[in-house]
Hints:
There is one protein chain. This protein has helices at residues 6-14, 27-32, 66-75, 89-97, and strands at residues 2-4, 20-23, 38-39, 58-61, 83-86. By secondary structure, the protein is of the alpha/beta class. The protein has one domain: 3-Layer(aba) Sandwich (Oxidized Rhodanese, domain 1), CATH 3.40.250.10. Strand 2, helix 2 and strand 3 (38-39) form a beta-alpha-beta unit. The relative contact order is 0.24.
Amino acid sequence: MRQVSTAEFRKWIEENRFFVLIDVRESWEHAAYNIGGQHIPLGEIIARKNEIGKDAPVVLYCEKGIRSAIAIQRLEPLGFDNLYNLEGGMSALRKIAN
């Protein structure tokens, strides 16, 4: 599984690198705080797999990087080889932002 560190993620943003961002947290978590992107909760990831492209890098995130890793583990056998887990998730991003 490919990981993207928070530092690398910020660099991608600064460089205007094209990627798709997907939040796999629950709706209430997404509503409370998010960094943008599409919202597909982990429990819906397989049912909504057709909403995820295979031709551009896709960064999945959650609170700590665990649910996003699970989402990637579920999607990779279905032919997704363009997925990146945001290492440490939102918790890690908040730490470097402060």
